[in-house]
Design goal:
This protein has two domains: 244 residues, Type I PLP-dependent aspartate aminotransferase-like (Major domain) (Aspartate Aminotransferase, domain 2, 3-Layer(aba) Sandwich); 123 residues, Alpha-Beta Complex (Aspartate Aminotransferase, domain 1). The chain has 13 helices and 14 strands. A hairpin with a 4-residue loop joins strand 6 and strand 7. Helix 2 packs across helix 9 and helix 5 packs parallel to helix 6. The radius of gyration is 21 Å and the shape is globular. The structure holds pyridoxal-5'-phosphate.
Length: 392
């Protein structure tokens, strides 16, 4: 291994950079997870999570990556043979569908353009056609991390309501929570899931599911086999600040610190910071003469920008040069986008200068890799932040 000075730039849309404060908070011995000190800590964390998700019922915490909450959302609310519907919006919505099929659910897929937000009119028509209400849940990815397209949760909620359909609305907010507004109760979401390693600034290893009263009621009737993910058992333990099994104690130390940091900044400011960093990143991409993979402004993501490579150039060759020369990791193209795009993560513990450094690395990489582009992307980003309003 070559020695690398300075910090590695982890500019993926997850895992994201973990702040020193969180690393330090985790650097403590685990305590008795059935003792009084632990119970008090967890009660505080659960209250903090409800504030963060804007969810008044409950937020479940699992020692699992984000995928664990995909499974938890389904097994706790549905029964074998139930139908669910998802949009074909990208790699992550596809994978959630694969999880559903593996559990014995029937998955309807609504075709989509991967470069645009999902079409809620198509959903409304699909639900109208389901007169017998066989469809039990709508699965939606808020920020489709493979494409960098943000979907309109409220639009999807409205489509379900227009069709007067009782299906649950389940939202994958793994890469959007803390980067883009998400009001679980107010927007009528039934299950919102997320993971620890993106906007929450933690290492990988925790996942979350905020639930509605309606989701808890569906849970009473749901027949899918479950044990580890079971809400009933967890709810009973959570009342005293405990879990039915050994939790990831050190990640919970980190989570407690992350919630403090988010409270100090104020969530509205956190969201504005992400908007500002995203806006300047898009300005850089446009100045380079490259294409934002997302073609519609309403779908622009504040968590990441996905850049489409000019035809005949390879995103992975570019990422390799940037990693080897500048010690920076960028996101790769997933699934059918392999080699065609790269993804710049701008979420979590970052600021203008972090993103400026990131864009410098990309601009130098483009030149070194011989990718046709115009110089001046970095300058365009700096211009956004240094003019009146600072990109806000
Ligand atoms: C990262 C991510 C996941 C998967 O999470 P894992 O922690 O890798 O299991 C799911 N959905 C979205 C939208 C993601 O960005």
């Amino acid at each position: 291994m070559t020695f690398r000075s300075g910090r590695h730039f982890l500019q993926l849309p997850g895992p994201t950079n973990v702040p020193d404060r969180i690393l330090r908070a985790m650097d403590r011995p685990p305590i008795d997870h059935r003792g009084p000190e632990f119970g008090e800590m967890v009660k505080g964390i659960l209250t903090g999570l409800k504030e963060l998700f804007r969810a008044s019922e409950h937020v479940f915490v699992y020692p699992a990556s984000g995928s664990g909450s995909w499974e938890a959302a389904l097994v706790n609310t549905l029964s074998v043979g139930d139908r669910v519907v998802r949009f074909d919006g990208g790699h992550f919505s596809e994978t959630w569908g694969t999880v559903a099929e593996a559990l014995g659910l029937t998955v309807d897929v609504l075709p989509c353009d991967w470069r645009r937000p999902v079409d809620s009119t198509a959903l409304e028509e699909h639900l109208n056609a389901d007169e017998g209400h066989e469809i039990k849940a709508v699965l939606l990815t808020h920020n489709e991390t493979s494409t960098g397209v943000k979907n309109d949760i409220q639009g999807v909620r409205t489509a379900i309501d227009q069709a007067s359909h009782p299906a649950l609305l389940m939202v994958d907010a793994v890469s959007s929570l803390c980067a883009m507004e998400l009001l679980h109760d107010e927007w009528g979401v039934d299950v919102t899931i997320t993971g620890s390693q993106k906007g929450l600034m933690l290492p990988p290893g925790l996942s979350f599911a905020a639930v509605s009263r309606k989701a808890l009621e569906a849970h009473e009737r749901a027949g899918l086999a479950r044990y580890y993910w079971d809400w009933t058992a967890i709810l009973a333990s959570n009342e005293r600040g405990f879990f039915p099994y050994t939790p990831a104690t050190n990640l919970l130390y980190g989570l407690e610190e992350a919630l403090s940091m988010l409270r100090e900044e104020g969530l509205a400011n956190t969201l504005r910071r992400h908007d500002r960093l995203a806006k300047a990143t898009r300005a850089a991409v446009a100045a380079w003469g490259l294409e934002n993979f997302c073609l519609e402004e309403s779908g622009f993501s504040s968590a990441q920008t996905t850049v489409k490579m000019p035809d005949g150039t390879d995103a992975d060759a570019l990422r390799k040069i940037i990693l080897e020369r500048f010690d920076m990791s960028l996101g790769s193209g997933l699934g059918k986008l392999k080699g065609q795009v790269f993804r710049i993560g701008h979420l979590g513990d970052i600021n203008e200068l972090t993103v400026a450094g990131t864009l410098c690395g990309v601009e130098m990489g483009l030149k070194m890799a011989g990718v046709p582009h115009r110089p001046g992307g970095v300058g365009a980003a700096l211009e956004v932040w240094s003019t009146e309003g600072g990109g806000a």
